[in-house]
Amino acid sequence: MKMSVTDHLEELRWRLIRSGIYVIAASLVALFFTEQILAIIKYPSKGIIESFLILKPTESIAIYIKTAFFAGLAVAALPIFYEFFSFIKPAAQEHNSSVTKWVFSAFLLFVSGVLFSYFFVIPQAVGFLMNLSQGLTGTPAQITLTSYVSFVCALVFCGGMIFQIPLIAYIFTKFGLITPSLLAGKRKEAYFALCVIAAVITPTTDAFSMMLFVVPMIILYEIGVFISKAVYKKRIAPGGEVYEQKN
To answer: Residue 105's closest CA among 116, 94, 113?
Structure first.
């Protein structure tokens, strides 16, 4: 049974509400483990930043809330992905696609991006920025804990989201919204757009931190082109038979 636009909007509203509840519930639980989570957040800067500053009496409360919120958002990623893909389930069924596979693929890609940012991007970015600051002032930079937490969490979530590029290419090709020839033919424009996106999502303005995201984004884009070609060549015909489509 087809749903009206109003029904779709109502469904979307409830899915957004449930997603918000997931984040709030996970954040409340994370409040009890804030010190452990902060220790994990600080780990990539070990040996680079000796100590952090707290400038206001109320800043500690803000740090606890911010840390718990970002941790809750990370924990709630799986059910949020489920809500999103369940919303597009009718279109997915038309293309004989498994929503469950999409959910776990998105979550695994998200975790991969988070780990990439945590173990590679953050240590490199922190080391570069601290050396740059010391070169300008002649003394080690003094970093506030709240700014560091925001910096790390932003990089981690950016990494998790940009790793969705191959899955987006797969879904869009599956739905017939894009073709591999379109992706390949628009490489220059896509690379420029990726540079702009990296400049926007990177919490710093230096080119080094931006390049730490641009390079993997380009690699992921090329993986997306490869996946798009594989999906485009092997599609399900209306009668159910599998056929090969040549470029």
So the answer is: 113
CB-based contacts of 15, cutoff 8 Å, min separation 6: 83, 84, 86, 87
Please tell me the distance from the alpha carbon of residue 120 to that of residue 169, in angstroms, as a whole number. 25
* CB contact at 8 A, 70 and 40: no
Neighbours of 53 (CB within 10 A): 12
The SS3 of residue 98 is coil
Query: Angle 100-9-99 (CA atoms, 0-180°, nearest 5)?
Result: 10
DSSP 3-state of 58: coil
Give tens-digit pLDDT for 35-75: 999 999 999 888 888 888 888 888 899 999 999 999 999 99
Give the helix/strand (H/E) hosting 242: strand 242-244
Mean pLDDT of 155-165: 90
Residue 50: helix, strand or coil by DSSP? coil
Q: What are the beta bridge partners of residue 52?
A: 143
| CA dist 167 → 109, 173, 185, 218 (Å) | 8, 10, 19, 14
What residue has token string 């809500």?
83
- pLDDT, position 241: 41
How far does the chain reach from its first CA to its final CA, in angstroms? Answer: 35
- Say how far apart CA 158 and CA 49 lie, in whole Å: 22
